[in-house]
From TrEMBL:
Its cofactor is Mg(2+). Mg(2+) binds at residues 71, 89, 91-92, 218. GO terms for molecular function: inositol monophosphate 1-phosphatase activity; metal ion binding. One of its GO terms (biological process) is inositol biosynthetic process. Its EC number is 3.1.3.25. Pathway: Polyol metabolism; myo-inositol biosynthesis; myo-inositol from D-glucose 6-phosphate: step 2/2. The lineage of its organism: Bacteria, Bacillati, Bacillota, Bacilli, Bacillales. Keywords: Hydrolase, Magnesium, Metal-binding. It comes from Halobacillus faecis. Pfam families: Inositol_P (PF00459). This is inositol-phosphate phosphatase. The gene is suhB. It catalyses: a myo-inositol phosphate + H2O = myo-inositol + phosphate. Coiled coil: none annotated.
Length: 269
């Protein structure tokens, strides 16, 4: 992608993310209709939908030849990643948004012919914007993030891990491997927003993030930002991510990535 064009897209994306965040913040105490999607705990609010529609209009008005892949379905039906594709999660952490009124983020990734060029994750209530352009490092607001440690061993690491993967009946991963991992680690955390979990890995607050089910909009921005500080982002079995389908994800500091995947993750299918 042409550098000048990339900078322009970045500046627009950043302005739209901040504007969308402001709208959410201003309405945080307004009554809202909450619906459920695939199951009773899969929540969506009108704010998720309005925010995605906001991006759809901005992108369509400004870049009619770009595509949008968004969680709430106001984008395009996409079968491949040719051209410029915006991958948007209008509110990542909807359950936190509803229950806690914090700990959620707007996530925007811009891909050119399948390569992640721009990533933005906005922690709306904390007013913290994580951003990256491929090859130019990652930022927390205006501050450049340092490269991640390649020294700290697994037994001194904190991993973002949802307790679901420790339930024997979970269909995705052998829970005993996950138990062994929990015993090995210094500790675990679960924030309930995949985008923020990537951002915290990039910031060095977490040493890694392991999950068995993510959609493209959950990691489109996060994977770009984590890679810009030297982290590794793959599927849990270390294969390349597939940006069009549900996937497992392991994002971590480079020196613990293979160890987590090889010694602890035993996928069921
Ligand atoms: P959401 O809030 O945008 O739906 C919660 O652990 C994290 O998982 C959030 O990032 C949430 O995104 C995401 N999530 C929720 N339901 C999911 C699903 N069915 N598949 C994949 N990710 C999901
Ligand atoms: Ca959702
Ligand atoms: Ca999400
Ligand atoms: Ca969402």
């Amino acid at each position: 992608m042409d550098q000048q064009k990339k900078n322009e897209i970045f500046e627009n994306a950043k302005a739209w993310v901040l504007e969308a965040g402001e709208r959410i913040k201003n309405n945080i105490d307004s009554p809202r209709s909450i619906e459920t999607k695939s199951n009773p705990n899969d929540l969506v609010t009108e704010m998720d939908q309005e925010t995605e529609q906001f991006f759809a209009k901005k992108i369509n008005d400004t870049y009619p030849d770009h595509y949008l892949l968004g969680e709430e379905g106001f984008g395009d039906e996409i079968e491949d990643l040719g051209g410029t594709v915006w991958i948007v999660d209008p509110i990542d952490g909807t359950m936190n948004f509803v229950h806690q009124k914090r700990n959620f983020a707007i996530s925007v990734g811009v891909y050119f012919d399948g390569v992640g060029e721009i990533g933005l994750i906005y922690n709306v209530m904390d007013g913290v914007l994580y951003s990256a352009k491929r090859g130019e490092g990652a930022y927390r607001n205006e501050e450049k993030l340092p490269q991640l440690s390649e020294e700290r061993p697994l037994n001194q690491s904190i991993l973002a891990l949802n307790t679901s993967w420790l339930i024997p009946e979970n269909p995705h991963v052998d829970h005993k491997g996950m138990e062994d991992l929990v015993k090995k680690l210094r500790s675990t955390r679960s924030y309930g927003s995949a985008a923020l979990e990537f951002a915290f890995v990039a910031e060095g607050l977490l040493d890694g993030y392991l999950t068995m089910t993510l959609m493209p909009w959950d990691y489109a921005a996060g994977s770009i930002i984590v890679r810009e500080v030297g982290g590794i982002v793959t599927r849990a079995d270390r294969e390349d991510l597939d940006l069009l389908n549900k996937t497992t994800v392991l994002a971590s500091r480079s020196n613990i990535h293979e160890e987590i995947s090889k010694d602890y993750v035993r996928l069921k299918k």
